[in-house]
Amino acid sequence: MIAALKNPANRAWLVLMVATAITWYLGEVGAAGTGAIVAMLLIAFVKGRLVILDFMELREAPKMWRILLEGWLILVSSLILLAYWISLK
Amino acid sequence: MTSVAATPATRRLPGDLAIWFFILAEMLAFAVFFATYAFARAKNVEMFNLYQHTLDRNLGGLNTVLLITGSWFVVLAVQAAHRDDTPAISRNILLGWLCGAGFLAVKVIEYSEKFGAGISLSTNTFYMFYISLTFFHFMHVILGMVILTVLWFQSRQGMYGSHGANGLESGAAYWHMVDLLWIVLFPLVYVMR
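Output (structure tokens, whole complex):
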């Protein structure tokens, strides 16, 4: 068990499963509004980052590629946040 | 001899450079799609919230689990290649493929339920986005599975190992992109309100 957790991919999978359960649960309890949206975007950001760094293995890749993909994640989350912020006005 | 360096001596991009440009282009297309959905929703919040309720979050969540797990198996296949564990390469590719097949099966159940209820692209703006976004992604899952099928045959022929795994790494990167896109798509279309 502990040996399995030495593999970053296994750790990432575990966190991704827990994070997915949280997002699903927020849907079940009907979480809505600013707090819920920010929480879900943060969860999606953490999940996406784990996929980029530990699944795509860009942690040790040339910096440019890490920045491009993580930048995509920031761009998409910001645009969604902006649109939801406008909708709450 | 080995001083602990803050940065590795050689930073290496897994797979071929070309696949990463392709992945970036795909991701930009989806970024436009995601933003268009979010801003269209901002103009019609009540309607989007109402029809979002008709989506099956359990199936959406199950599909998230399937794609992430499928992605994880393919990482294990790449790791197996680096340590020359040939049987584990093809076994993990197959397991990743099966997760993808599970995703498609769940999606077909979801679609047949919606289409059976008479919902189509022209029903309303929300369903237009729901169907086109998820179907565009659905086709990417299919392409990912075609790639995994090729990789499985190649791995059975012993093409991948510590001597080289570029093709496998390129295909794996594409498969992870499909996962990454769903990680944004699921909360956006199924949950956020």
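Chain A has a mean pLDDT of 94.
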